[in-house]
Design goal:
single chain, alpha/beta, ornithine cyclodeaminase, domain 1, Rossmann fold, 2 domains, 8-stranded parallel sheet, 17 strands, 23% strand
């Protein structure tokens, strides 16, 4: 990879797909999970803040920044459920990684695909620490753009071999079955959430509607299951009935953000939750008994994106899966930025006009 500080490696959608296919989807998610766990184990080193959100009637646009003191990263991401009806992605994203010592960017990349990989990796990583041991069946309620990534991450990291699929749109479920056909996973098409959770030790909810929905009612959740709640990720958007939360041991990424955006926005501000990084470091215990209901209230946190950016930056070395982007002005004399314009004019690169 280039060492020129003014030239930034840029990973386009095309190159991200090439990188994913080169490494393999499951390998990439497994390794991103390793990077996330390593970063969670050094949690106190990071800057932490709830994401900066700009909400509208049709969606949300967010910035997710963090730094470990050596590198700084941020992700731009949106969430617009209405986009699907217009033939557009519900979630799109890009991200940047920078060197804290100079402030110079060292990576610019698409993160729509990378966020799907990161989200699934995080889900499976949480389940590795919280789900009952030996579980082989997961219910996947919501079979949209994230579903296949979730299924494959749970297969690779947690050993799931059967996925019970339900979506209000049968075409989404059929798409998911087609895409998972050659993965070794057994897929079961279900006609209701009730049918989907039957016999499942892990329940993943991942729906897109921006509303307080009840995807899971209390009577559907038996003792001893692990719930991976992915879809509730902004104010006014939840998936689980409040009574499920009251019966569950709740694990979160960063409480100040999750209390605004997650399932626990339905609960009192002081309702007890456990931070997942503490489980990963061994400071607190995750699952404590076989009948316990564990709930990962997943909203996505900036450190996870930082981990994914760090991973891509490392994996690009020795590949051609990036373009060199001339992104930083680099005058011979750092104090003479205007002189760089004059030299460009002298070299015939264009007029230096004066606006009136």
């Amino acid at each position: 990879m280039t060492k020129k500080l003014n030239v930034v490696p840029f990973v386009s959608v095309d190159n991200m797909m090439k990188l994913v296919l080169h490494l393999g989807v499951t390998r990439m998610m497994t390794e991103i999970a390793d990077y996330i766990e390593a970063d969670f184990k050094r949690w106190p080193l990071f800057d932490k803040t709830p994401r900066v959100a700009s909400h509208s009637d049709v969606g949300v646009i967010e910035l997710m920044p963090t730094s470990d003191g050596e590198m700084y990263g941020f992700k731009y991401v949106n969430g617009h459920p209405k986009n699907m009806k217009e033939g557009l992605q519900t979630v799109t994203a890009f991200g940047l990684l920078a060197d804290v010592n100079t402030g110079y960017p060292i990576l610019l990349t698409e993160m729509t695909i990378l966020t799907a990989l990161r989200t699934a990796a995080m889900s499976a990583l949480a389940a590795k620490h919280l789900a009952p041991k030996g579980v082989k069946t997961m219910a996947m309620i919501g079979n949209g753009a994230q579903a296949e990534f979730q299924a494959l991450a749970f297969q690779a990291i947690c050993g799931i071999d059967t996925v019970r699929l339900y979506d209000i749109d049968p075409a989404a479920t059929e798409k998911c079955v087609r895409n998972l056909a050659a993965t070794g996973l057994r897929t079961v098409i279900c006609r209701s959430p009730e049918e989907a959770v039957e016999g499942a030790g892990i329940i993943t909810t991942c729906t897109a509607d921006k509303q307080n929905a009840t995807i899971l009612t209390d009577n559907l959740v038996g003792a001893g299951v692990h719930i991976n709640a992915v879809g509730g990720d902004c104010p006014g958007k939840t998936e689980l009935h409040r009574d499920i939360l009251l019966r569950s041991s709740i694990f979160v990424e960063y409480p100040p953000q999750t209390r605004i955006e997650g399932e626990i926005q339905q609960l009192e501000a002081d309702h007890p939750v456990t931070e997942l990084w503490q489980v990963m470091t061994g400071a607190v215990q995750g699952r404590t008994d076989a009948r316990q209901i564990t709930l990962f209230d997943s909203v996505g946190f900036a450190i996870e994106d930082f981990s994914a950016l760090r991973y891509v930056h490392d994996r690009l070395k020795g590949t051609r899966f990036f373009d060199e982007l001339d992104m930083i002005a680099d005058p011979d004399d750092p104090r003479d930025l205007f002189g760089m314009l004059l030299r460009a004019k002298a070299a015939g690169q264009g007029p230096l006009a004066t606006a009136c």
